[in-house]
Amino acid sequence: MDAQGRGRADNIDPADQWVLNPATGEYELRLDPSPPQSAVPGQRRGAAPGPGGGASRRRGTPSDAEQAHETAPAPTVPGPRRRRGAPDEEEPPPGRRSRRPEKKKRSRTKKVLMWTGGTMAFVLVGAGTAGYLILKHLEGNVTTTDVGSAAKDSFSKDEAFNILIIGTDKRTGKGNEGYGDKGSVGHADTNILLHVAKDRTNATALSIPRDLIVDVPDCPTKQPDGSTKVVPGSHKVRFNESLGQDGRDPGCAMRTVKEITGISPDHFMMADFNAVKTLTSAVGGVEVCLKHAVNDKDSHLNLPAGSSKIEGEEALAFVRTRHSFGNHGDLDRIKVQQQFLSSLMRKMASGDTLTNPVKLYDLADAATKSLTVDTGIGKASTLKDVALELKKVPTKNITFLTVPVLDNPDDGPVHKTVILNQAQAPQVFDTINSDVSFTEVQKKKQQAKDAQAARLKGTRSAASEVRVRVLNGGAKDGAAQETLTWLQNQQGVLKSENGSNAPEKLANTTLEYAPDQADQARELASLMGLPGAALKPGKSVTNSQGLPAMTLTLGKDYKGAGVSLTAPKKAPKVEGQHTADTVQCAS
């Protein structure tokens, strides 16, 4: 049996296997009891002497001395070596093994795992990172789903990343028969798009209402036999139908998020009802606050006004209650869930949790048992990497907000539901996509933007003198002509022309220019809102009039004629947004 298997044998709690070595002052893994020492100095412990004093016993076969250990006195062995400066000890009576005076029994909270660093903060599912054996055990808890190209096949520690966190209403897990819709295939009941900044200084948790009216795109889904089936899309349906309905997998929900927001989720984490129950119990309860007492017969939540500590079934009832807050709708329930998650995150980041190895292990175990993730992050080492990157973000810089919507509009396609607020939502999506924080932007980020802006300063040509050829290098069909029309009719860039498709597709829009065209480049960049990184010194091309011209290649980041590609310097204010360190009371 390998070390991992021995660590799980006989239902031994892994936390109980890490004990303090008084000789070194460090915690060590004890997978099984130590065998008795040999009677011969220098002989391997546990090996019976063979002919001539050699150790002839086969590995794993108990020696005669070991078999007789309980019925006969063990041979006299040299006493244990004392640490320098330690007080003298009395010699033990003959026939008895040397033993140090028994120490006071240690509490469970002082037994530790071999933590290799940090806290596994999955927002919904935070837990401590542990040594290899523990991570392999936790990996065995996690369920993975192959969502194909909807998710990345690996995780990068050097880039910004987006994780779609989904809470389903499927009645999975012991004791959950009374929750959710009876017979539900597991719809996307609670949805949070978590964006973690490239520099790890901040993160944004964007709640997507389950009742938001969306278009669900066609979705390729992996079948049990390994084949791929395309589930047809749906027009004007609630977001929660992007999962479960007609056999849609989490990849369908990820594709729907991209369709709505333009933001591509890199990975997903899906949790069931047990996540809330087990996680809150693992940390010893979560503090919540109510502005008024609640006694909800539907969810069975019964709490007084003021602060309360909840866990288990009571915690699940709290996040599922929708008839006791606000106007009894899903938008008000989202506010309560965000307040709850903020409190849970504060508890997981508190010293009470981080210094308690038993809580950390229980938290990690509970989290992984209730998780389903994509194959790109399903390995223990990858989950650890995700955890350590998330741990770098302070709670004061984690912003919770909800997609701006119009609630129950008169012209809504479905009665009593919500649609995107087109006047506000695009700006929020653009801010997240541009990796701009909704909290205070750090000086180094502002300095980088100032340096970028400085590249565009200097003399500029008049728009009428700008000569440019526009190519489509990965933007939507017709983008080159759309931009050309906008430049000529609205910006006065008359010396411009359509160069058709670029020879290759680009992720980002570029403007290549010769040294003597720098003035023209600065003018066009100013008109179009191009970032400094888009300007590429190089060479000119010859246009249809035989004159030198710049080359504007529209990449996949192109958003439309007149839409700036420069990242916003400041995020918009969204009603109800708050940071994870803010204590709020549900009303």
Q: What proportion strand?
A: 15-25%
Number of strands: 28
The geometry reads as elongated
Indicate the percent of residues in helices: 10-25%
Please give the count of helices. Answer: 14
Gap between N and C termini: 55 Å
Average pLDDT figure: 77
Strand order of the largest sheet: 5-18-13-6-7-8-19-28
- Class computed from helices, strands and strand pairing: alpha+beta
Rg over C-alpha atoms, rounded to the nearest angstrom:
31 Å
Unreliable segments of 5+ consecutive residues: 1-11, 31-92, 95-130
Q: What composes the largest sheet?
A: 8 strands, mixed
Give a concise summary:
It is built from 14 helices and 28 strands.
Question: Any chance you could write out the topology, listing elements then pairs?
Answer:
Layout: H1 3-8, E1 18-21, E2 26-29, H2 64-67, E3 119-122, E4 125-128, H3 132-141, E5 143-145, E6 161-168, E7 188-196, E8 203-207, E9 213-216, E10 219-222, E11 228-231, E12 234-238, H4 250-261, E13 267-271, H5 273-282, E14 286-290, E15 294-296, E16 301-303, E17 306-310, H6 312-320, H7 330-348, H8 351-354, H9 357-369, E18 371-374, H10 380-391, E19 398-402, E20 405-407, E21 418-420, H11 425-433, H12 443-454, E22 467-472, H13 479-490, E23 495-501, E24 510-513, H14 518-528, E25 535-537, E26 541-542, E27 548-554, E28 578-579
Parallel strand pairs: 5-18, 6-13, 8-19, 22-23, 22-27, 24-25
Antiparallel strand pairs: 1-2, 3-4, 6-7, 7-8, 9-12, 10-11, 13-18, 14-17, 15-16, 19-28, 20-21, 24-27, 26-27
